[in-house]
Amino acid sequence: MSMSEPIVDIRNLSKQFTSHDGGLTLALDRVSLQIEPGQFVSVVGPSGCGKSTLLAILAGVMDRSDGQVLLRGAEVKGPRRDVGVMFQEALLLPYRTVLQNIMLPAIIHRLPQAEYLERAKQLIKLVQLEGFNDRYPSELSGGMQQRAAIARGLLHDPAILLMDEPFGALDAMTREQMNLDLLDIWSAARKTVMLITHSISEAVFLSDRVIVMSPRPGRIVDTLDIDLPRPRSLAMMATPEFGAYAERIRARLGLRGSAE
Ligand SMILES: Nc1ncnc2c1ncn2[C@@H]1O[C@H](COP(=O)(O)OP(=O)(O)OP(=O)(O)O)[C@@H](O)[C@H]1O
Ligand SMILES: [Mg+2]
Q1: pLDDT of residue 111
Q2: For labeling, which of 16, 90, 126, 196 is most exposed (least CB within 10 Å)?
Q3: Parent domain of 5
Q4: Which residue owns the Cα nearest ligand 1 atom 24?
């Protein structure tokens, strides 16, 4: 793969749903999007604009209606080993322990168990859940559950990690800590990340690039390259540069002057 070849290459992707009463919903309308290897890209947009639909199609768990979706140069036809996914719902399985949850991709993809058990234990260290291997999700805090879900997404060493609102249920303080943790994990694991979020400041803080979508039918209305230095610190959120990015996204979303 050449340096310039995008890892994700979406061209004119459209998705139309037919509801049970026969009504048609155009969820995505000719979306084109390229992501370079190692990039951290966030997608923001109003509820119902097709963000989860986009992620599901990219993850290979939903068919597209039209257009082309390439991952590392190959058409997406189903779930793939080189993709790790954190869906918006169903973070962890309640009847499996932390370690058993993190091992799921190894079971699904029929990978050598002993080797991946070692890897799972390393990932548990990486997401700072040492000592919680044998706990059940209900015995963890929300943030710990989300860190376990991140570890699970990374187990089979996917080239790309797709995350749908991973921090939506967290309070602001835990969420900021999770943002910092995610950046540490991202820089240590060198993954390509596509993250869906409702939070404009989270998108700016984490990303190399922010994609802004319109209300349904989802179209891309703006793409911002976030030219803030790395590593990022929370103090950067108070800078005029940060504010200018956030303001431009708000304006694109029709939220000019309103609080996030
Ligand atoms: N399986 C489905 N069948 C029919 N319509 C669907 C289906 N899944 C999604 N939709 C419709 O497609 C549109 C986009 O849904 P999607 O879940 O992608 O939105 P979203 O941007 O992720 O919203 P949110 O921010 O609330 O999670 C919505 O109008 C939704 O009703
Ligand atoms: Mg969604």
Answers
A1: 93
A2: 90
A3: 1-82+159-260
A4: 47
